[in-house]
Amino acid sequence: MAFIDGTAVNVALAALESDLHADIVSVQWVIESYGLFLSALILVGGALGDAWGRRAMFLSGIAGFAVASAGCGLSTSITGLVFWRSVQGVAAAFLVPGSLAIISASFAESSRGRAIGTWSGFTAITTALGPVLGGWLVEHASWHWVFFMNLPLAALVIAISLRHVPESRSSNPKRVDWLGAAVATLGLTGLVYGFLESAFLGWKHPLVLGSLTGGCVLLALFPWVERRVAAPMVPLELFQSRSFAAANVLTLFLYAGLGIFFFLFPLNLIQVQNYSPTATGAAALPMILLMFALSRWSGGLVARYGARLPLTVGPLIAAAGFLLCMAPSVEANYWRTFFPAFIVLGLGMATSVAPLTTVVMTSVEEDRAGTASGINNAVARVAGVLAVAVLGLVMVASFSHSLKASVRSLRPDPALVHYVEANAAKLAGLEPPADQDPGTREKIRLAVRHAFIFGFRIVMLVSAVLALASAVTAWRMLPSRDRGTRVHLPRSSDLNRRAA
To answer: Which domain covers residue 181, as residue numbers?
Structure first.
């Protein structure tokens, strides 16, 4: 449910924008509301499972996710959909950490690897099928079914869990860091709200200034809070490890570029390149399959070369993939343009994912490895949330600048220019005004598509710079070879959580 939903919804964004008459900022909230609550509460969900019962929290997450999915599917307004997506994010924060915790608690060490391998295989399949299935449902039914398909899955999972999954708890559960979770959630919400709404309200609006200031203050207070609570969800002493700190900075940069890419490329393919939703969902398959096929190979790179070399080369290759994404123009041929970009980007991420997971897991004491992995997972999700907010703003500004220039050269009509400025936040979903003649309307449509490509190229250039910053971070902060540090191949579960 979580893996399919996480990838299928992006393919439905163009349909949401059209059907609900939404602008790109509202569509961003559909993604942001889910990711924000999941990233802020995922560590809390793991702690609650240890304390109150892993199966109980897992089932609570499944039930909540199903109810929220029904709410999403029944939504008739973008506001209602954003609300239910927020509930989905909270439920996912209980669901996602619960599945692996149940496996770890239910299997002996001798058979645990095979069990996690089975889990890993199914998540890889659903991650790959999610966009294709979501695209097919959008094309042949409606976007509502992207959410409704979770209901029978939820019923099946609950029945299987009640019959076959034993309850388990930690023998030494930690207290839940509610204060830290509240500060992190409110801080991220303030930043995201300020960046997104500035597209409409302007930077000087009191709500924008207040939310940005409040978000920055709360996030600045977060380390202070974590130093003083009895059981912090983010133990700051872990960052005394130079390798652990480097891995999280690298994650923040690399996954920010990846997050905005997966937000924008479905809009590009559907609204600009005229791909069907099903074809759009299938477009990313080469990247996902390449990451899955090469994960075991890349896991061995750390033992052979140390972490610094693959974590420098991998993001550099990913940067080249982002740069290749700048090449396609309007109605570009997939096999000559997007396919090579996905292959290069997939190779870069495949080279990076396993070594990054290994660094995270081996840069701290063994009994803190689970916490370290959870923190890094949260950082990856926060990176995507912030990237969609900040770089989405860059996309809207670039699109608006290009489109206004094209419209002025087409017809210096103040009313038409004002219409474009007022509707720029719709991006490629912007329709020409009805009072224009057919020839002018067609020219405006073409200008809209070229303006989207202009903005997309700007954002891909920024993504390439972020990937380059990841490579520089690895080269400057990681040792060339591990010194006195445990080196082992990451578990397949960690690889697939990172890939997702």
So the answer is: 177-232
Helix (H, G, I), strand (E, B) or coil at 231: coil
Contact 61, 146 (CB under 8 A): no
- Model's pTM, two decimal places? 0.86
Cα separation, 362 vs 487, in Å, equals 6
197 in the same domain as 80: no
CATH number, domain of 87, equals 1.20.1250.20
Distance CA 394, CA 459 (A): 7
Task: Give me the residue label for tokens 């029944």.
Answer: 74
**Judgement on whether residues 102 and 158 belong to the same structural domain of the protein:** yes
Q: What angle do CA 394, 397, 401 make, to 5 degrees?
A: 140
Helix 285-299 vs helix 109-140: crossing angle, to nearest 10: 170
Contact 362, 486 (CB under 8 A): yes
List the structure tokens of 440. 């002018």
Nearest to 351 by CA among 387, 302, 384: 302
Token look-up 């659903």 returns: 126
Note whether 68 and 201 are within 8 A (CB): no
For the stretch 113-129, pLDDT in tens is: 677 667 766 777 777 78
Residue 250 CA to residue 466 CA, distance in Å, equals 9
Phi, psi (rounded to 5 degrees) for 337: -125, -70
CA distance 215 to 235: 21
Tell me: do 18 and 49 sit in the same domain. Answer: yes
Tokens 């034993």 correspond to what residue?
166
Are 170 and 57 within 8 A, CB to CB?
no
pLDDT in tens, 293-339: 887 788 788 878 888 999 999 999 999 999 999 998 888 889 999 99
Whole-angstrom distance, CA of residue 297 vs CA of residue 419: 53
The encoded tokens of residue 223 equal 């380390």
Q: What is the reported pLDDT for 367?
A: 65
Residues 6+ apart with CB under 8 A from 264: 395, 456, 459
